[in-house]
Amino acid sequence: MGFYSMTKVKTIVFDAVRDFYPGYFALVMATGIVSISANLLDMAIFAALLFYINISAYCFLVLLTAVRLFRYFPRVWMDLTDHQSGPGFFTIIAGTCVLGSQFAILTGNIHVGFYFWITGACLWLIIMYSFFAAVIIRPVKPSIEKGLHGGWLVTVVSTQSLSVLGILSAGFISTNERVMLFFALAFYLLGCAMYLALIALILYRLLFFTLTPETFTPPYWVNMGTIAITTLAGSLLIQKAPAGPFLTEILPFLRGFTFFFWVAASWWIPLLVILEFWRHIWKRFPILYDPEYWNIVFPLGMYSAATFELERATSYAFLGTASRGMLYLVLTAWLIVFIGLLRDLWGEF
Q1: Among 91, 104, 234, 316, which is disulfide-ready with 113 (CB 3.0 to 4.6 Å)?
Q2: Which of 107, 106, 105, 98 is nearest to 26 (CA)?
Q3: How far is CA 5 from the centre of its chain?
Q4: Which residues contact 48 (CB under 8 A, 6 or more apart)?
């Protein structure tokens, strides 16, 4: 009986590693940004608790990914070069940078934050160019209807996460702070360009192709999360302007562009809520735990943090109230999805 149980557990574990969802690092992204938002709004206990949970989750997911990479490399490559699953790998970059941002903000340890930035930048180079080169040159490609979804925007989130962490850890190299801010600005602008290109295609897919409850998946919430993190990066760059003369020179542009993206993020929220109502209430699509639901928690948490930093950058005091109200919703959402994760893991065994 004991041998059978161990064999069963081993089978479950290796099957889970083989079929591991590439976008599972959205758990780290979501937990990290909720922790940061709680810290910004003086909820230190929640922030610290989520920080330690996130460290554990990140280490566990890195271990699973490493085992999968060495044991099932052909499957990993197949997933990375696939239009549907490939964008999920960018959550590894974003999760790494969000955890690094937690170290920089919650502990003040910008040294660790800088090393996470280096790691994230290396991962960005590998994953970004492997994915885009592979999907461009592959001989058989899916239609926009089949191959494009909101998860593609995680490519932008990963880019903007490098901008955010670069700003937070710029002080690590005091003599070259301007260099770090230069790269942060570069990643910020690249992320803006990528978003404007991809969102046009995603809106085209939503507006002119049939949408079903099965195809309207949680990653479409990244439509909002992408520009929320862009707002966050822009707000931090505005606050860092005195440290970089080139930032001062383009300050009016940064302020206008950042506010533009915050307004766009705010526009997305009611529409996405309506579509969720249509999916689950009108069409009665069952609500069961899925790792993709972390892609709802992350955008909401990012919107809370971005709104708070925008208030700091613009002195619009009422934005702080909006940020705090959103945080209570985000904490509830995180808890619901986390309970779903625990129940799902319990059910596996």
Answers
A1: 104
A2: 98
A3: 37
A4: 35, 106
Give Cβ neighbours of residue 9 (< 8 Å, ≥ 6 apart): 349
Which is nearest to 181 in space by CA: 240, 97, 223?
240
CB 307 within 8 A of CB 288: no
Query: Is pLDDT above 90 for 91?
Result: yes
Residue 337 sits at φ, ψ, to 5 deg, of -70, -35
HSE-up (13 A, CA, CB side) for residue 328: 5
Q: Which amino acid is at 121?
A: A
- How far apart (Å, rounded) are the C-alpha atoms in residues 217 and 203? 14
CB-CB contact of 188 with 256 (8 Å): no
Q: Do residues 213 and 281 touch, judged by C-beta distance below 8 A? A: no
User: Can you give the pTM of this predicted structure?
Assistant: 0.93
246-259 pLDDT, tens digit each: 888 999 999 999 99
User: Could you tell me the CA-to-CA distances from 306 to 181, 184, 311 in Å, in that order?
Assistant: 19, 16, 9
pLDDT of residue 1: 46
Provide the token pair at 80. Answer: 């990375």
Cα dihedral 64/70/72/77 (nearest 10) = 100
Is residue 94 within 8 A of residue 161, CB to CB? The reply is yes
Query: What are the backbone dihedrals phi and psi of residue 42, each rounded to the nearest 5 degrees, phi first?
Result: 65, 30
The pair of structure tokens assigned to 253 is: 């542009």
Query: Please, what is the Cα angle at 195 between 280 and 168, to 5 degrees?
Result: 100
C-alpha separations of 85 from 61, 74, 80, 248, 269 in Å: 17, 14, 7, 40, 25
Find the helix packing angle between 222-239 and 251-277, rounded to 10°: 160
Closest C-alpha among 229, 250, 223 to residue 238: 250
Is pLDDT above 70 for 179? yes
